[in-house]
Design brief:
The protein has about 475 residues and is of the alpha/beta class. Helix content is about 30%, strand content about 20%.
């Protein structure tokens, strides 16, 4: 029986980060992964999905070729070849990372492809083939999986994990769920040529985002032929209808849709069922492991990070939590964690990104705030690239002049939002952001345009009275619409 000071369970971004940080602090470390290293992100999530998004972008840009003097037939979608490319990319990323070698070079012992892992007691886990490891402290980084609806015929539906095994591109696809995953799948498959329909129980898609993001994304989707139905009352059943599927749902009465494929995008739950957490004294609630501010579970020697906590299910957040969990496990539970500045978004068409407070959150927090919303059509780069759709919105505190939040919809939205996030992390005044000499012509220059509009609203720059009296005052900007 092998004994370690720290045992990390899970070999995704959180697990690898936790193991490496624990080794940096001098602890003896074992990392146990039941399957392939890399976790959902590399094998089943971000990496292969980004390949699909790249293909969707190339197909969209091919439609512009004739506008720029590039004349020729549009490329034909070979879906089988695209899925082959996703797997090749996963293998290349695995080869690039060399996770096992990286961990072993750091001094950690790796148990990859270890099969199911179960706790026998708070300090002992059992691997496949009856191998047993003992640990002083544990960090749970086992990730999560897509939730499936419990309804008749649910077995006929796909989740995002099943898309990699499709034999051909479905002619029609019904996506149930309008959050980040659902929007990304809908956008990609519509770009490939599928007729896509989306059902969402909430009153808007992307409900966690700013309302302006939801509205612009819905407009963008509809302009691309995606049918979006919000405020539905529920999905009742999926039935086989020859080679198609018939979905019945309620929206002002019973409705139905017949499609070739149905995909659930209705949430994400932690991988908690096979771990034997009862034996370790770890409480599970609604499919997640609750943690305190130190990322400590109900068992004092067991910490958790990443998707299993149900807090912030993003790769960057998993790594952040993992570092803190490892430090608290090795040094003692003193560090608190707080997800405050987390830029995020989706590689959809149009793309979207957000960071910090939404406008509604600022209202509910009682903030005195100012807003600048700049349309992409004001940007020369957007006109040059033929991508004038979208906007950038900045929310700033009227009292402190700090940025409270930002969001964008349109080309390079995520990169744009990260400029605002960097300003927030640096605790910059909006005046400082307004003074940055951002390169021209770029999409990120829109951040400076918004910052300067807020500076004008704050009244901290000299303006002639007649300029202030304008009904719709604007900053004296070089980049603007006619």
């Amino acid at each position: 029986m092998s004994e370690f000071e720290i045992i990390v369970i899970g070999g995704g971004p959180a697990g690898v980060t936790a193991a490496l940080r624990a080794r940096e602090l001098g602890a003896s470390v074992a990392l146990v992964e039941r399957d392939r290293m890399g976790g959902t992100c590399t094998n089943d999530g971000c990496v292969p999905t980004r390949v699909l998004a790249k293909a969707a972008r190339l197909r969209r840009e091919a439609e512009q070729c004739s506008d720029y003097g590039l004349v020729g037939p549009l490329p034909i979608m070979d879906f089988t070849q695209l899925l082959r490319r996703t797997q090749q990319t996963v293998y290349r990323i695995q080869e690039k990372k060399q996770l096992i070698k990286h961990l072993e070079d750091s001094g950690a012992q790796v148990f990859a492809d270890a099969g199911p892992v179960r706790f026998k007691d708070p300090h002992t886990i059992e691997l496949a083939h009856d191998s047993v490891l003992k640990g002083d402290k544990f960090v749970l980084c086992v990730g999560g999986h897509a939730r499936r609806l419990d309804l008749p015929g649910a077995e006929y539906a796909l989740t995002h994990s099943d898309t990699w095994s499709l034999k051909q591109l479905p002619e029609s696809l019904l996506v149930i769920g309008g959050a980040a995953t659902g929007c990304q799948v809908a956008s990609n498959f519509a770009a490939f040529g599928s007729k896509v329909m989306m059902l969402e129980i909430g009153r808007r898609i992307l409900a966690v985002e700013d309302e302006s993001v939801s509205a612009e994304m819905e407009r963008g989707f509809k302009s691309r032929g995606i049918e979006v139905f919000t405020s539905i009352e529920g999905v009742d059943a999926i039935e086989k209808a020859g080679n198609e599927l018939r979905v019945t749902y309620r929206s002002g009465g019973e409705q139905s849709a017949t499609v070739e494929a149905v995909l659930f995008a209705v949430g994400w739950v932690g991988n908690v069922n096979e771990l034997g957490l009862d034996a370790a004294g770890v409480v599970v609630e609604r499919g997640y492991v609750p943690v305190n501010g130190n990322l400590q579970t109900s068992a004092p020697n067991i910490f958790a990070a990443g998707d299993i906590t149900g807090r912030m299910m993003l790769v960057q957040s998993a790594g952040y939590e993992a570092r803190i969990a490892a430090e608290n496990a090795v040094l003692g539970p003193e560090q608190q964690f707080e997800h405050r500045i987390v830029p995020h978004g989706g590689f959809t068409d149009p793309e979207y990104g957000s960071v910090g407070m939404t406008e509604l959150a600022a209202q509910e927090a009682g903030e005195e705030y100012l807003i600048a919303e700049v349309p992409y059509a004001d940007l020369d780069r957007a006109v040059i690239d033929g991508r004038p759709e979208g906007f950038f919105k900045m929310i700033a505190s009227q009292e402190t002049h700090r940025i409270l939040g930002a969001c964008a919809v349109g080309e390079q939205a995520l990169e744009i939002v990260q400029i605002a996030a960097a300003g927030m992390a640096a605790d910059m005044w909006v005046e400082q952001l307004a003074e940055m000499e951002l390169a021209y012509p770029t999409f990120t220059a829109i951040v400076g345009l918004a910052a300067r509009r807020i500076v004008h609203q704050l009244g901290v720059v000299p303006l002639a009275p007649e300029w202030r009296a304008l009904a719709t005052p604007h900053a004296a900007e070089w980049e603007r619409r006619d």
